[in-house]
Amino acid sequence: MRARPVSCCFSGHRPSKLPWGNDETDPRCVALKQQLWDAMEAAYQEGYRHFICGMAQGCDFYFCELALELRKKYGDVTVEAAIPCPTQAERWGAEQRRRWQRLVDLCDYETMVQNHYSPDCMQRRNRYLVDHASMLIAAHNGQSGGTRSTIEYALLRGLNTVILPIES
Questions:
Q1: Which domains does the chain have, with CATH numbers?
Q2: Do residues 136 and 7 touch, judged by C-beta distance below 8 A?
Q3: Would 10 disulfide with which of 63, 77, 108, 153, CB 3.0-4.6 Å?
Q4: pLDDT of 8-45, one tens digit each?
């Protein structure tokens, strides 16, 4: 079901802004994933059934993987990959490209926000996320950037917003 009232989207940082970088075994990363799981479980209990992910490296991957786990646990969950442009993963390392492709393939829906790269395609993807949901879960370290802009836009649009702090 892809209806705005039951849709939850996510925003979070890429590895370059995470204190653990790509080390997902770091206790801080493990703790964030648990907080994210708890927030998604709570969203499910509140009636959210559709989870939209922007498919960036880092926190977006965590969210997508956990949404897929939520779908395994509850059969009525759907997961949408909101891809900013066809070349999103083109310049990533092979392992990250494979992870991205595997996640996209596992999603129930794939939305290509625009058909070509442009300097503002990530922002357009973030607006798509917020415009198609009524809840935002965000993992945020307090810094300016795409995640903060998405949080501000979600608050402006009146979304139920849950912010999970990232400690350094």
A1: 4-17+24-129 (3.40.50.450)
A2: no
A3: 63
A4: 999 999 999 999 999 999 999 999 999 999 999 999 99
Closest C-alpha to 138, from 46, 1, 13: 13
pTM of the model: 0.96
Three-class secondary structure of residue 123 per DSSP: helix
Distances (CA, A) of 116 to 49, 107, 121: 30, 21, 8
Contact 122, 77 (CB under 8 A): no
**Mean of the pLDDT values across residues 49-78?**
98
Specify whether the CB–CB gap between 13 and 167 falls below 8 A: no
28 neighbors 20 (Cβ within 8 angstroms): yes
Tokens 């907080």 appear where?
35
166 torsion bin: left (phi>0), alpha (psi -120 to 50), beta (else): beta
- One-letter identity of residue 144: S
Residue 26: is it exposed, middle or buried by C-beta count within 10 angstroms (0-12/13-18/19+)?
middle
Q: Kindly state the average pLDDT of the residues 51-58.
A: 97
How far is Cα 64 from Cα 80, in angstroms, rounded to an integer? 9
